[in-house]
């Protein structure tokens, strides 16, 4: 009975565990066995191996935590080493690799004996000036006088929808929404750095300080770059403050006139200011017709989009440029989908379309400046590293070959084309259906899309189809296109800006402020002793025209996008974008034409004959990572750290004239392209 009571079936249950453990207690023990000679011999016993312990599962969350932990540890280690090493160590390493570094321009020119002379006024461009919160909604609690734009952009990540709400302006008035006040940061810190470590004006300011400048002789004319230019005066009295500060700086510096240095859109803003300050009140500042002559020695424009930029069209049309289009191609649908209810591009479009300043950079001058369906000033441009040869150097034998090259040249005048074939084929073969007056039809979006409202949602499928069926758009039809797709935005825009060419500048209508920032519809001040410089980078592919396609997702999304599959090396087409020479943002034509031809000598746009100069800086990338953004860059913002440009600026503020600087410095075909533009001038351009 006892055996029966002890015998139990062996199974995988816990009852079998003692038996297994007993059998495995001494796996090295041997059993004794009689070998027949009275001796025992040992035979190995049967050993049951212990099953391996269960492996712990490594989840995706564990991997992410491990990865983030490694990044944080590496970051803090690098930060510690950076703070621990001597300040001269990066320079020592760089010099060990590349040789001795040149002196900064301020140090070099101080050794030459240059000293501070003329007071300096900086005019920042779009997006580079800081904006801070003075009044906000409940979601912005605790952000009083904290930067919403510039700095670390921390609020973009913490509360993105709240940030978009506070950065947007009223869609009807173009001013503050009810209960929100966002204002420009004041002082030199407003635009010295865009973000930590990313300089804008800081390098130039530091070099000016080396020859004796300080805050009382330098003034940052900060303004809310989202507003239309006239509205900066209406809301903040910014133009009046600039006028008062310039007058104060002249009075407190022995009557020495100021040198004004605008950058990017700040160039257009200061053009507006020069007309405003001399115009009669209440529309103008009441300074009188000789105010600029008395107070301004020179205007040194850096990267000025005098005639607009095609990049602005892509931004307003589809909330993208080349970089965004490539990102969409790499991650299809990511920026268009409702990920975490963000709908990124739709929110960007809704926000940016309330910024009236973006409409100041729509291309000006129409087809006369930018070209038509079958011609453009840059026709024949080669995007290869070698510059295209001058037409005068082409022999008769190469005539046929040259004709073939012209056939393959990009049609830059077609700023928007729906399809690569439309961008390339002769205009006579393109069948176009006029979109103007087309019935927009039923709404293309359901009610849920109203949270990210854009005016595309009021167009309907019929309106979207009409836009695509027009096939291709030049600079003149672009303005009509924007009126069709965004009537409310353009109603505000055309109340503050104009994009044409004046027939008669004596017409009283050109006294209205909407014309003051368009150099083709206004005149320079009567200041014959003043000088105007245009300083800009060249040698970088710069957006000029686009190949578009209809988006397959019309509901709750932007219906048009750049066709990144369109490529053609022969015509400078890459990722759906045709490129020309420029600084990556502003084409050479826009930055240089006015100083090359429109204002050169006494013309109807420059009746007093203000002397104009062009200084181009050929782009050269940094030799290694230790050089950061480089000291020879020609890129639109990075050029602010270009040593050659800074040296030119310092010489001007220290008293040098354009002739003493060396006159024009040209690397591009700006004069050749300018001659192709048939712009009526009252007086032939005189040579110096």
Protein described:
Strands 9-3-10-11-14-19 form a 6-stranded parallel β-sheet, with helices on both faces. The model is unreliable at 1-36, 41-45, 325-331, 338-342, 386-407, 444-448 and 684-688 (pLDDT under 50). Helix content is 33%, strand content 13%. The chain contains 25 helices and 19 strands. By secondary structure, it is α/β, with parallel strands linked by helices.
Shape: globular
Number of distinct helices:
25
Spatially, the strands of the biggest sheet line up as: 9-3-10-11-14-19
Uncertain runs with pLDDT below 50, 5 residues or more? 1-36, 41-45, 325-331, 338-342, 386-407, 444-448, 684-688
Compose a concise summary of this entry.
By secondary structure, this protein is of the alpha/beta class. The protein starts with a helix and ends in a 13-residue tail after the last helix.
């Amino acid at each position: 009975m006892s055996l029966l009571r002890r015998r139990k079936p062996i199974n995988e249950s816990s009852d079998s565990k003692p038996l297994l453990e007993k059998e495995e207690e001494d796996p090295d023990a041997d059993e004794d066995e009689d070998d027949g000679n009275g001796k025992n011999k040992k035979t190995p016993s049967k050993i049951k191996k212990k099953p391996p312990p269960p492996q712990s599962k490594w989840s995706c969350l564990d991997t992410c935590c491990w990865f983030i932990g490694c990044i944080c540890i590496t970051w803090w280690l690098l930060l510690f080493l950076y703070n621990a090493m001597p300040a001269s160590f990066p320079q020592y390493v760089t010099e060990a690799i590349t040789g001795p570094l040149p002196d900064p321009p301020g140090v070099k020119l101080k050794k030459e004996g240059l000293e501070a002379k003329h007071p300096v006024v900086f005019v920042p461009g779009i997006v580079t000036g800081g904006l801070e919160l003075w009044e906000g909604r409940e979601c912005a609690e605790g952000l009083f006088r904290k930067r919403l734009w510039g700095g670390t952009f921390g609020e973009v990540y913490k509360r993105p929808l709240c940030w978009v709400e506070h950065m947007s302006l009223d869609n009807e008035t173009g001013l503050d929404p009810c209960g929100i006040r966002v204002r420009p940061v004041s002082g030199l810190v407003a635009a010295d750095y865009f973000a930590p470590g990313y300089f804008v004006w800081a390098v130039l300011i530091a070099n000016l300080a080396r020859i004796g400048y300080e805050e009382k002789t330098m003034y940052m004319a900060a303004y809310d770059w989202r507003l239309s230019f006239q509205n900066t005066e209406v809301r903040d009295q910014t133009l009046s403050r600039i006028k008062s500060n310039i007058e104060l700086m002249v009075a407190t510096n022995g009557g020495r006139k100021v040198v004004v240095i605008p950058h990017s859109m700040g160039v257009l803003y200061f053009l507006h200011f020069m007309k405003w300050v001399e115009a009669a009140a209440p529309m103008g500042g009441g300074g009188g017709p000789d105010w600029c002559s008395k107070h301004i020695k020179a205007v040194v424009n850096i990267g000025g989009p005098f005639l607009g930029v095609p990049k602005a069209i892509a931004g307003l049309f589809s909330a993208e440029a080349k970089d965004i289009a490539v990102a969409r191609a790499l991650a299809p649908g990511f920026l268009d989908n409702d990920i975490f209810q963000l709908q990124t591009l739709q929110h960007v479009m809704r926000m940016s379309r309330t910024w009236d300043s973006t409409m100041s950079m729509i291309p000006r001058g129409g087809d006369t400046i930018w070209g038509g369906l079958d011609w453009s000033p840059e026709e024949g441009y080669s995007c290869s590293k070698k510059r295209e040869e001058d037409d005068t150097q082409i022999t008769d034998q190469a005539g046929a070959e040259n004709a073939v090259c012209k056939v393959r040249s990009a049609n830059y005048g077609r700023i928007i084309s729906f399809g690569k074939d439309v961008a390339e084929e002769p205009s006579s073969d393109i069948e176009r259906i006029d979109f103007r007056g087309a019935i927009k039809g039923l709404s293309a979006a359901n009610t849920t899309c109203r949270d990210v409202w854009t005016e595309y949602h009021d167009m309907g499928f019929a309106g979207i189809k009409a836009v695509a069926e027009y096939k291709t758009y030049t600079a003149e039809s672009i303005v009509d296109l924007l009126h069709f797709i965004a009537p409310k935005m353009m109603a505000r825009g055309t109340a503050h800006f104009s994009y044409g060419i004046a027939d008669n500048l004596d017409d009283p209508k050109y006294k209205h402020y909407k014309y003051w920032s368009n150099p083709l519809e206004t005149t320079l001040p009567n200041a014959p002793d003043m000088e105007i410089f245009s300083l800009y980078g060249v040698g970088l592919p710069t957006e000029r025209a686009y190949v578009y396609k209809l988006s397959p997702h019309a509901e709750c999304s932007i219906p048009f996008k750049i066709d990144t599959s369109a490529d053609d090396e022969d015509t400078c087409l890459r990722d759906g974008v045709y490129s020309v020479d420029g600084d990556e943002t502003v084409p050479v034509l826009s930055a240089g034409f006015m100083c090359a031809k429109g204002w050169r000598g006494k013309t109807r746009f420059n009746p007093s004959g203000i002397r104009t100069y062009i200084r181009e800086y050929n782009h050269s990338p940094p030799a290694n990572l230790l050089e950061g953004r480089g000291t020879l860059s020609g890129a639109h913002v990075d050029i602010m750290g270009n040593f050659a440009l800074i040296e030119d600026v310092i010489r001007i503020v220290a008293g040098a004239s354009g002739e003493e600087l060396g006159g024009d410095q040209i690397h591009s075909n700006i004069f050749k392209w300018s001659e192709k533009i048939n712009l009526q001038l009252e007086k032939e351009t005189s040579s110096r």
